[in-house]
């Protein structure tokens, strides 16, 4: 299903008139769902399915009253937005895939939502996350005996330097790539059973990661909706109509 020129113009008009939010505004599920219902007939089928799925998990995350569940559902929402077919995962790897996805989001982000979010949150949440060794994979590689103590500490220092440099150069995609590498480590800890539900041992990093992800995920979904004319790829496990 392709957007006609009339539909594209109508879509652009809806964006320009109805969704001029202030810099710090992050849409919630209800706002995004209301918009999705108004626009979904104009979306290509693959984007429509991605947005529909991502919003369903975002909704679930907003209903959670514990950070363990909230983080998992936010990650599933993110995964629903960027997931690609298996052969591409083999070629790029999971982190490579969402790295490519983040780069594309930046190029589509006409309102600079992600740039503003990174700039506003860097001195607070993002800086704290980057300084937390418990969500740095190299830290766990050291404790598993795979690398030296100097190596993991060097990895942490390099990431901080790279993030600061990227921020100074307005390279939002690079900052997000470094940030998501930490979020991915936490994701692995939770999904692969490397953490205890409601454990006091990992509360702070989980709280910090939820705080940034609950702002990033709605912004990501909204950018995709803003850019319905772009190619987002076929959705994995597409809806099969047997009729």
Your description of this structure?
The chain is mainly α and 243 residues long. The chain has one domain (25-226). It is 70% helix and 0% strand. Helix 7 (113-130) packs across helix 10 (172-191) and helix 9 (149-168) crosses helix 10 (172-191). Mean pLDDT is 87; it is low at 1-6 and 8-20.
Question: What are the SSEs and their pairings?
Answer:
Blueprint: H1 5-18, H2 29-39, H3 45-63, H4 67-82, H5 86-92, H6 94-108, H7 113-130, H8 137-143, H9 149-168, H10 172-191, H11 203-226
Helix pairs in contact: 2-3, 3-4, 3-11, 4-11, 5-6, 6-10, 7-9, 7-10, 7-11, 8-9, 9-10
Structural class: mainly alpha
When the domains are counted, the total is: 1
- Please report the distance between the alpha carbons of the first and last residues: 19 Å
Largest sheet entry: none
Portion in beta strands: under 5%
Explain briefly what this protein structure is.
With 243 residues, this protein is mainly α.
